[in-house]
Amino acid sequence: MTSHRYALIQIHFAAVLFGLTGVFGELIHASASVITLGRAMFAVAALIFFARLQRRKLLSPLTPAQMTGLILAGLLLAAHWVTFFVSVKVGGIAIATLGFASFPAFITLLEGLVFREKVRMAEWIVLGLVTAGLVLVTPSFDLADQGTVGLAWGLLSGLAFALLALMNRRSAAGIDAMQVACCQNIVVALALLPASASQLPTVAAINWMWLALLGVFCTGLSHYLFVSSLTRLNARSAGLVIALEPVYAIAFAWMLFDQQPTVRMVAGGVLIVAAIVWSGLRKPAH
User: Fold this and answer.
1) CB atoms < 10 A from the CB of 266, how many?
2) I want to staple 160 with a disulfide (CB 3.0 to 4.6 A). Which of 80, 98, 122, 217 is the partner?
3) So where does this one cross the membrane (predicted)?
4) Confidence of residue 286 (pLDDT cuts 50, 70, 90)
Protein backbone atom coordinates (compact mmCIF):
# COMPACT_ATOMS: atom_id res chain seq x y z
CA MET A 1 0.00 0.00 0.00
CA THR A 2 1.38 3.41 -0.95
CA SER A 3 1.84 6.04 1.73
CA HIS A 4 -0.68 8.30 -0.05
CA ARG A 5 -3.36 5.59 -0.02
CA TYR A 6 -2.60 4.83 3.62
CA ALA A 7 -3.02 8.53 4.43
CA LEU A 8 -6.39 8.58 2.66
CA ILE A 9 -7.53 5.61 4.74
CA GLN A 10 -6.39 7.43 7.88
CA ILE A 11 -8.27 10.63 7.03
CA HIS A 12 -11.47 8.74 6.11
CA PHE A 13 -11.30 6.86 9.40
CA ALA A 14 -10.83 10.21 11.18
CA ALA A 15 -13.95 11.57 9.43
CA VAL A 16 -15.94 8.51 10.56
CA LEU A 17 -14.76 9.05 14.14
CA PHE A 18 -15.72 12.73 13.96
CA GLY A 19 -19.14 11.65 12.69
CA LEU A 20 -19.54 9.35 15.71
CA THR A 21 -19.23 12.28 18.14
CA GLY A 22 -22.95 13.02 17.99
CA VAL A 23 -23.75 9.34 18.55
CA PHE A 24 -21.90 9.40 21.86
CA GLY A 25 -23.62 12.66 22.72
CA GLU A 26 -26.91 10.81 22.30
CA LEU A 27 -25.77 7.72 24.23
CA ILE A 28 -24.30 9.49 27.26
CA HIS A 29 -26.89 10.36 29.90
CA ALA A 30 -25.21 13.43 31.35
CA SER A 31 -25.24 17.19 30.86
CA ALA A 32 -23.39 18.79 27.95
CA SER A 33 -20.79 20.25 30.33
CA VAL A 34 -20.07 16.86 31.94
CA ILE A 35 -19.76 15.20 28.51
CA THR A 36 -17.33 17.92 27.42
CA LEU A 37 -15.30 17.64 30.63
CA GLY A 38 -15.05 13.84 30.36
CA ARG A 39 -14.18 14.04 26.67
CA ALA A 40 -11.36 16.50 27.35
CA MET A 41 -9.88 14.48 30.22
CA PHE A 42 -9.77 11.24 28.26
CA ALA A 43 -8.53 13.11 25.18
CA VAL A 44 -5.53 14.49 27.07
CA ALA A 45 -4.57 10.98 28.21
CA ALA A 46 -4.96 9.65 24.66
CA LEU A 47 -2.97 12.50 23.09
CA ILE A 48 -0.12 11.96 25.55
CA PHE A 49 -0.10 8.26 24.60
CA PHE A 50 -0.13 8.95 20.85
CA ALA A 51 2.56 11.61 21.23
CA ARG A 52 4.78 9.06 22.97
CA LEU A 53 4.20 6.65 20.08
CA GLN A 54 5.51 9.28 17.67
CA ARG A 55 8.17 10.46 20.13
CA ARG A 56 6.83 14.00 19.93
CA LYS A 57 7.26 16.53 22.71
CA LEU A 58 4.11 18.02 24.23
CA LEU A 59 5.88 20.43 26.56
CA SER A 60 7.90 22.64 24.23
CA PRO A 61 8.48 26.15 25.62
CA LEU A 62 5.81 28.71 24.69
CA THR A 63 5.90 32.49 24.66
CA PRO A 64 3.37 34.40 26.81
CA ALA A 65 1.53 35.38 23.62
CA GLN A 66 1.33 31.75 22.47
CA MET A 67 0.14 30.62 25.90
CA THR A 68 -2.56 33.31 25.96
CA GLY A 69 -3.69 32.30 22.48
CA LEU A 70 -3.93 28.62 23.47
CA ILE A 71 -5.96 29.48 26.57
CA LEU A 72 -8.42 31.59 24.58
CA ALA A 73 -8.64 28.88 21.93
CA GLY A 74 -9.27 26.27 24.64
CA LEU A 75 -12.18 28.33 25.98
CA LEU A 76 -13.62 28.55 22.46
CA LEU A 77 -13.20 24.78 22.08
CA ALA A 78 -15.12 24.29 25.34
CA ALA A 79 -17.91 26.57 24.06
CA HIS A 80 -17.97 24.69 20.73
CA TRP A 81 -18.30 21.27 22.37
CA VAL A 82 -20.84 22.30 25.01
CA THR A 83 -23.14 23.97 22.46
CA PHE A 84 -22.79 21.00 20.10
CA PHE A 85 -23.83 18.48 22.76
CA VAL A 86 -26.73 20.71 23.84
CA SER A 87 -27.78 20.72 20.17
CA VAL A 88 -27.61 16.90 20.05
CA LYS A 89 -29.72 16.59 23.21
CA VAL A 90 -32.33 19.08 22.02
CA GLY A 91 -32.53 18.59 18.24
CA GLY A 92 -30.91 15.24 17.46
CA ILE A 93 -27.67 14.17 15.80
CA ALA A 94 -28.48 15.18 12.22
CA ILE A 95 -29.71 18.67 13.15
CA ALA A 96 -26.69 19.27 15.42
CA THR A 97 -24.15 18.11 12.85
CA LEU A 98 -25.65 20.12 10.00
CA GLY A 99 -25.86 23.20 12.21
CA PHE A 100 -22.19 22.81 13.11
CA ALA A 101 -21.35 22.30 9.40
CA SER A 102 -22.20 25.99 8.90
CA PHE A 103 -18.77 26.96 10.26
CA PRO A 104 -17.20 27.66 6.81
CA ALA A 105 -19.88 30.32 6.26
CA PHE A 106 -19.06 31.91 9.62
CA ILE A 107 -15.34 31.87 8.76
CA THR A 108 -16.12 33.71 5.50
CA LEU A 109 -18.14 36.35 7.35
CA LEU A 110 -15.62 36.78 10.15
CA GLU A 111 -12.67 37.10 7.80
CA GLY A 112 -14.54 39.84 5.95
CA LEU A 113 -15.99 41.70 8.94
CA VAL A 114 -13.40 41.24 11.69
CA PHE A 115 -10.12 40.76 9.87
CA ARG A 116 -11.04 43.06 6.94
CA GLU A 117 -9.99 40.41 4.44
CA LYS A 118 -11.53 40.68 1.00
CA VAL A 119 -14.30 38.12 0.48
CA ARG A 120 -14.34 36.87 -3.11
CA MET A 121 -17.48 36.19 -5.10
CA ALA A 122 -16.95 32.42 -4.92
CA GLU A 123 -16.92 32.62 -1.12
CA TRP A 124 -20.20 34.56 -1.13
CA ILE A 125 -21.65 31.76 -3.27
CA VAL A 126 -20.51 29.20 -0.69
CA LEU A 127 -22.09 31.34 2.03
CA GLY A 128 -25.34 31.48 0.03
CA LEU A 129 -25.41 27.70 -0.51
CA VAL A 130 -24.81 27.00 3.19
CA THR A 131 -27.53 29.50 4.15
CA ALA A 132 -29.99 27.92 1.70
CA GLY A 133 -29.12 24.50 3.09
CA LEU A 134 -29.76 25.67 6.65
CA VAL A 135 -33.14 27.12 5.66
CA LEU A 136 -34.10 23.70 4.27
CA VAL A 137 -32.80 21.92 7.37
CA THR A 138 -34.75 24.18 9.77
CA PRO A 139 -37.86 22.19 10.85
CA SER A 140 -39.88 25.38 11.34
CA PHE A 141 -39.29 29.01 12.20
CA ASP A 142 -40.99 28.63 15.56
CA LEU A 143 -38.74 28.71 18.65
CA ALA A 144 -41.22 26.39 20.36
CA ASP A 145 -40.04 23.68 17.98
CA GLN A 146 -37.29 21.59 19.59
CA GLY A 147 -35.65 20.91 16.23
CA THR A 148 -35.36 24.64 15.55
CA VAL A 149 -33.88 25.30 19.01
CA GLY A 150 -31.46 22.42 18.44
CA LEU A 151 -30.39 23.92 15.12
CA ALA A 152 -29.81 27.28 16.82
CA TRP A 153 -27.47 25.58 19.30
CA GLY A 154 -25.77 23.84 16.39
CA LEU A 155 -25.23 27.19 14.67
CA LEU A 156 -23.69 28.55 17.90
CA SER A 157 -21.39 25.52 17.87
CA GLY A 158 -20.41 26.33 14.28
CA LEU A 159 -19.74 29.97 15.21
CA ALA A 160 -17.55 28.93 18.16
CA PHE A 161 -15.62 26.53 15.91
CA ALA A 162 -15.12 29.23 13.27
CA LEU A 163 -13.72 31.58 15.93
CA LEU A 164 -11.51 28.70 17.15
CA ALA A 165 -10.21 28.09 13.61
CA LEU A 166 -9.34 31.75 13.15
CA MET A 167 -7.75 31.92 16.60
CA ASN A 168 -5.61 28.86 15.84
CA ARG A 169 -4.58 30.37 12.51
CA ARG A 170 -3.14 33.36 14.34
CA SER A 171 -1.94 31.96 17.67
CA ALA A 172 -1.02 28.32 16.99
CA ALA A 173 1.32 28.96 14.06
CA GLY A 174 4.69 27.31 14.60
CA ILE A 175 3.47 25.10 17.48
CA ASP A 176 3.24 21.31 17.07
CA ALA A 177 -0.38 20.36 16.33
CA MET A 178 -0.37 17.61 18.97
CA GLN A 179 0.83 20.08 21.61
CA VAL A 180 -1.88 22.54 20.56
CA ALA A 181 -4.59 19.88 20.88
CA CYS A 182 -3.30 18.67 24.25
CA CYS A 183 -3.01 22.17 25.74
CA GLN A 184 -6.45 23.18 24.51
CA ASN A 185 -8.04 20.04 25.96
CA ILE A 186 -6.37 20.75 29.32
CA VAL A 187 -7.91 24.25 29.23
CA VAL A 188 -11.32 22.73 28.42
CA ALA A 189 -11.09 20.38 31.39
CA LEU A 190 -9.94 23.10 33.80
CA ALA A 191 -12.63 25.52 32.59
CA LEU A 192 -15.49 23.05 33.08
CA LEU A 193 -14.28 21.27 36.22
CA PRO A 194 -15.62 23.86 38.75
CA ALA A 195 -19.15 23.81 37.29
CA SER A 196 -19.30 20.07 36.61
CA ALA A 197 -17.33 18.46 39.45
CA SER A 198 -20.42 18.01 41.66
CA GLN A 199 -22.17 16.06 38.88
CA LEU A 200 -19.34 13.56 38.31
CA PRO A 201 -20.27 11.17 41.18
CA THR A 202 -23.76 10.77 39.67
CA VAL A 203 -22.45 9.62 36.27
CA ALA A 204 -23.23 5.91 35.78
CA ALA A 205 -20.44 3.45 34.95
CA ILE A 206 -21.78 2.81 31.44
CA ASN A 207 -21.63 6.54 30.74
CA TRP A 208 -17.99 6.66 31.86
CA MET A 209 -17.29 3.93 29.31
CA TRP A 210 -18.97 5.98 26.55
CA LEU A 211 -17.02 9.07 27.70
CA ALA A 212 -13.76 7.13 27.51
CA LEU A 213 -14.57 5.96 23.97
CA LEU A 214 -15.56 9.52 22.99
CA GLY A 215 -12.38 11.03 24.40
CA VAL A 216 -9.93 8.35 23.25
CA PHE A 217 -11.31 7.52 19.80
CA CYS A 218 -13.37 10.54 18.65
CA THR A 219 -10.90 13.07 20.02
CA GLY A 220 -7.45 11.62 20.71
CA LEU A 221 -7.26 8.97 17.97
CA SER A 222 -9.13 11.06 15.39
CA HIS A 223 -6.78 13.99 15.95
CA TYR A 224 -3.77 11.69 15.78
CA LEU A 225 -4.99 10.24 12.46
CA PHE A 226 -5.80 13.70 11.12
CA VAL A 227 -2.38 15.11 11.99
CA SER A 228 -0.60 11.97 10.77
CA SER A 229 -2.42 12.02 7.40
CA LEU A 230 -1.34 15.62 6.84
CA THR A 231 2.26 14.44 6.57
CA ARG A 232 1.31 12.83 3.25
CA LEU A 233 -1.81 14.76 2.18
CA ASN A 234 -2.26 18.47 1.62
CA ALA A 235 -4.73 20.32 3.85
CA ARG A 236 -7.17 20.76 0.96
CA SER A 237 -7.47 17.02 0.29
CA ALA A 238 -7.87 16.31 4.00
CA GLY A 239 -10.52 19.02 4.33
CA LEU A 240 -12.58 17.52 1.50
CA VAL A 241 -12.73 14.17 3.30
CA ILE A 242 -13.56 15.76 6.67
CA ALA A 243 -16.45 17.56 4.92
CA LEU A 244 -18.14 14.13 4.77
CA GLU A 245 -18.56 14.18 8.57
CA PRO A 246 -22.28 15.22 8.39
CA VAL A 247 -22.95 12.38 5.99
CA TYR A 248 -21.48 9.82 8.39
CA ALA A 249 -23.26 11.40 11.37
CA ILE A 250 -26.69 11.31 9.68
CA ALA A 251 -26.11 7.71 8.57
CA PHE A 252 -25.18 6.64 12.12
CA ALA A 253 -28.21 8.46 13.59
CA TRP A 254 -30.49 6.73 11.10
CA MET A 255 -29.03 3.25 11.68
CA LEU A 256 -28.60 3.37 15.46
CA PHE A 257 -31.43 5.60 16.70
CA ASP A 258 -33.90 5.51 13.80
CA GLN A 259 -33.55 9.31 13.45
CA GLN A 260 -34.68 9.24 9.83
CA PRO A 261 -33.90 12.52 8.00
CA THR A 262 -36.71 14.25 6.15
CA VAL A 263 -36.47 15.02 2.43
CA ARG A 264 -35.90 18.70 3.29
CA MET A 265 -33.11 17.77 5.71
CA VAL A 266 -31.39 15.60 3.11
CA ALA A 267 -31.68 18.37 0.49
CA GLY A 268 -30.29 20.93 2.92
CA GLY A 269 -27.48 18.59 3.91
CA VAL A 270 -26.56 18.02 0.26
CA LEU A 271 -26.35 21.79 -0.29
CA ILE A 272 -24.16 22.32 2.78
CA VAL A 273 -21.78 19.44 2.04
CA ALA A 274 -21.62 20.41 -1.66
CA ALA A 275 -20.72 23.98 -0.69
CA ILE A 276 -17.92 22.78 1.61
CA VAL A 277 -16.55 20.36 -1.01
CA TRP A 278 -16.73 22.95 -3.80
CA SER A 279 -14.97 25.46 -1.57
CA GLY A 280 -12.19 22.94 -0.98
CA LEU A 281 -11.82 22.16 -4.68
CA ARG A 282 -11.30 25.77 -5.68
CA LYS A 283 -7.76 26.98 -6.22
CA PRO A 284 -6.66 29.48 -3.60
CA ALA A 285 -6.35 33.10 -4.70
CA HIS A 286 -2.89 34.59 -4.92
Assistant:
1) 15
2) 80
3) 7-28, 34-53, 65-84, 90-110, 122-141, 147-166, 178-196, 208-226, 238-257, 263-281
4) very low
